[in-house]
Amino acid sequence: MTYSLTPDTNSARPQRVRFLRSLRRHPLGALALGLLLLLAAGAILADLLAPYDPTATDLGNSLSGPTGSHLLGTDALGRDLLSRLLFGARVSLTGTAQAVATVIAVGVPIGLLAGYLGGWVDRVAGGIIDVLLAVPGIVMLLVIVAIFGNNESVAMIALGVLGAPGMARVVRGSTIAVRNELYIKAARVSGLTTRHVLVNHVLPRVSGPIVVRASLFAGVALLVETGLGFLGFGAQPPDPSWGNMVADASQFVAIAPWMLVPSGATIALSILSFGLLGDAIRDSTAGRARGADRVRRKVAGDAKEPAATPAQPATETPDDSDALLRVRGLTVSVPAATGQADIISDVTLEIRAGETVGLVGESGCGKSMTGRAILGLLPQPVAVTGGRILFDGQDITKLGPRQLQRLRGAQIALISQEPVASLDPVFTVGHQLKEVLLRHQPGSRREIARAAVALLRDVNLREPERVMRSYPHQLSGGMAQRVAIAMALAGRPRLLVADEPTTALDVTVQAEILGLLRRLQRQTGMAVLIISHDWGVIADVCERAYVMYAGQVVEQAPVLDLFDGPRHPYSAGLLGCMPGRAARGDLLPAIGGRVPQPGSWPTGCHFSPRCPIARDDCTRDPVALNETAAGHASRCLYPLLVDEKVFSHDAR
Ligand SMILES: Nc1ncnc2c1ncn2[C@@H]1O[C@H](COP(=O)(O)OP(=O)(O)OP(=O)(O)O)[C@@H](O)[C@H]1O
Question: Among 6, 562, 595, 651, which is most exposed with the fewest C-beta within 10 angstroms?
């Protein structure tokens, strides 16, 4: 069944209302908009409003100032200046509109694609922009006018093309900023096409700078149009344009200076109005951006550290033969001065269908990069440089962008630690949820809306209909995370990657979200990879866990085995740092030092410089991940020397 949903106009309306309201704080902007609308209306209704034929001469009444019958006076041939001004507006404003439309049509797509896609597209766009910027604009325009006779439309379109690099640069810069926002990544992960994400999510966010730039460019275009008219190009006498009216007036400026006032003042006021309007729009969009930042800061500021919760029984370690996801020897690198630096190295892990597996470690160990590699979402210039990621037998590292897009959302989905930031602030929850549902399942408008409400109910959101109508900033952190989970589930994924899903939430909400994930995992049978630095989260929901340190998996085991008997000093150290595991009255132990940066990993065991039981041979050769018991492996040469007391608070 095919159908289309009518766009959610709710989201556009508040923006318009906000802009109109903000004009109240910018009386000059409002005045400018009013004047421009008046001029446009005058041009459109010139046939009705003009008191005289603009070309009709009356030699007995030439060069008169303002009179009762000629409100703005007459020119040297006795033609009515008001009528000529109204008809001339058609020529001048049409030329301006042509240039502005061209600057938008050429500059915006180039800027969007360059900013969003980056890489070679950005480089090619940069080259085109540089070439266009090197062209001397006015000379080019005169050449074009000379070639195309007096076809002013061609000249104004050419002006638009010459102005496009400026627009492209503004759009590119704004797009790069928006591209890194979490909700754009979330939209990509949910399987939406690049075109859809660009048009529906990026474009609305960069529309402010586009309108500002277009408004300022309109002033320039009007100046150029009237300049061409003044030089005798474009509309030819007796037809009026504002430019040729100025040219006519300049011949009689000594004997009839008034004649210059109507056309000159109209041009000056119009250019000024475009500038003032641009300023007003800029102020209004800057206010909106500040508002969005405040919401984001509030969410981040409200975040509290989660607390530990009791462990659940672990299951047996699965064998890898039927694993849904098999990561084998994965290496991810970034270009560096010395060639390339590995960010993660030789990571091997697996997750079976229906299993919940944890990936735990300090900040900077490479957990998120592992998750992103699984989703095919590594940020440029980071890239997979070794190993395989087999999802249901298919190597993800070999897939092209389109195939990856089909996989994301439908097969593998993501939820992140910043739920509000992962939703587009411009659209209602309902709009975004329906958009993702529509991507994954056909259905009538009514069916999709019903499915969206059902999904929100599934994630325990009370009053789902009200939530559908809400904007992201109207949701609490917990509600936003439930919405993000609903969106991730919309494509019925077989694997869910949850990157720190509860870090930004307070303790009570964290427990609710973990409970929800457990229930959904049981109901849907999907596999879940939970990335966290918090053992409490791992213990609460995971059956097995992988401990990462400096880009490597250093230990893997069922969660209970890890808690009972870690076999790597790093895991032991991390577990020992948990407040709940220290003896009453004791200072908390700590692991001295820091995680080494990619490119400066030590030879041999990466953890050796911080390890209290390290020996000489630990720093000699790379250490392999060896099985210490069934389903339990450690990258340590002395796993049996490890116990939780290898660290003390003195290590600080
Ligand atoms: N875009 C990037 N380009 C180059 N290096 C990066 C980039 N993003 C992250 N890194 C580096 O990769 C390493 C691993 O980062 P990653 O985000 O995977 O760590 P993490 O364990 O998930 O930590 P956190 O919990 O803080 O996100 C870090 O040393 C980081 O500096």
Answer: 6
